[in-house]
UniProtKB/TrEMBL annotation:
Gene3D superfamilies on file: Arfaptin homology (AH) domain/BAR domain (1.20.1270.60)
PROSITE patterns noted in UniProt: AH
Localization annotation: Golgi apparatus membrane; Golgi apparatus, trans-Golgi network
A Pfam short name: Arfaptin
Organism: Macrosiphum euphorbiae
Gene Ontology process terms (BP): intracellular protein transport; regulation of Arp2/3 complex-mediated actin nucleation
Protein name per UniProt: AH domain-containing protein
Main location group: Golgi
């Protein structure tokens, strides 16, 4: 066995000599000597680096340390409550939807309001079809106008190079230029019609449909908590059930108020939307009719008067706009 030698440390030698003396000492004398020795204060030596709170939750202020110890940090219970309430609400709504499809639960239905909502969705679908066709017509008519302009320029060029047919080429060139000029005015009216119908279909009606979706979600939540309250009301009257019924009654009342509020918002929005739709479409259809009639009757003055009457800004078609319309498709 190898021999271990310790040198250079007086504390170690002192400890070895003292142990050798105490081995031959009487137990009573050893006890008295130990009690007479002064006690050294214990120092706390951490076995790891102190942790710094670098990601404390918002709104949380750590309490000061007590006796050199770091207190247990607690996260605010509001986030946990939000997750818990969301989970409970999602479960109840999913259960309500399944029970409605299986015929095990009743559904709150406003027949008159549901009819108006279905009519609105059908109206948006039909207006979307009109918008699609009007866009296609505007794009094709724009290409037609550019072709007319090119044909008129070709007639004018040939009229200068063919003296024997100069009069005929010039007449056709002037006719195509006049038609293309009127076509630009009709195209401006078409673009104005497309822009207005697009705003009505994809913004105004869509905003009302968003409110309707919120109303339908509130209806499901209302029915879910109503069914929950009806089920608890049929259970035996115990202390725990009484507390649960009170909580269910409070949740039911809260969702009922929210459901009724959204229902009234939907009714008001449907009313104003119908008035706005009639007003906008009356103006656009009248403008579309007058511009089309003036164009095909070759009445340039009536066409310009129609554009001024409805505040349509003139824009001449260009090749870049045709390319942009083709790329958008």
């Amino acid at each position: 066995m190898s021999r271990i030698t310790i040198s250079g440390d007086p504390t170690v030698h002192e400890y070895i000599n003292r142990n050798a003396e105490t081995d031959n000492m009487h137990p009573a004398i050893l006890r008295s000597e130990i009690e007479a020795r002064p006690l050294r204060p214990r120092t706390y030596v951490p076995n790891s680096l102190p942790l710094t709170n670098t990601a404390a939750p918002r709104g949380y202020t750590p309490s000061p340390t007590q006796n050199g110890e770091i207190p247990h940090q607690k996260f605010p219970s509001s986030k946990i409550d939000v997750i818990k309430n969301w989970s409970v609400s999602t479960y109840k709504c999913t259960k309500q939807l399944i029970n409605e499809k299986l015929g095990k639960s009743s559904k709150t239905v406003d027949i008159e309001l549901e009819t108006e909502i279905e009519q609105l969705r059908e109206t948006q679908k039909k207006y979307g079809n009109i918008l699609k066709l009007a866009k296609s017509m505007a794009t094709q008519f724009q290409c037609f106008i550019l072709t007319q302009q090119s044909l008129g320029e070709a007639f004018a060029e040939l009229g200068q190079k063919s003296p024997e047919l100069q009069q005929e080429f010039v007449q056709n060139s002037e006719t195509q230029k006049c038609l293309s000029k009127n076509g630009e005015s009709l195209l401006n009216a078409l673009n104005f019609f497309v822009s207005s119908v697009n705003t009505l279909c994809n913004k105004t009606i869509e905003d009302t449909l968003i409110t309707i979706k919120q109303y339908e979600c509130a209806r499901i939540e209302y029915d879910a908590y109503r069914s929950d309250l009806e089920m608890l009301a049929q259970m035996p009257r115990t202390d725990s059930n009484t507390v649960r019924v009170g909580d269910a009654q409070q949740n039911y009342q809260q969702h009922k108020e929210e459901f009724e509020k959204l229902r009234s918002d939907v009714i008001v929005k449907l009313k104003f939307l119908d008035e706005n739709r009639v007003k906008v479409m009356h103006k656009q259809l009248l403008m579309f009719h007058n511009a089309t009639l003036a164009y095909f009757s070759n009445n340039h003055q009536a066409l310009e008067t129609t554009l001024k009457q409805f505040n349509v800004k003139p824009k001449s078609p260009t090749a870049s706009s045709v390319a942009a319309s083709w790329l958008e498709k």
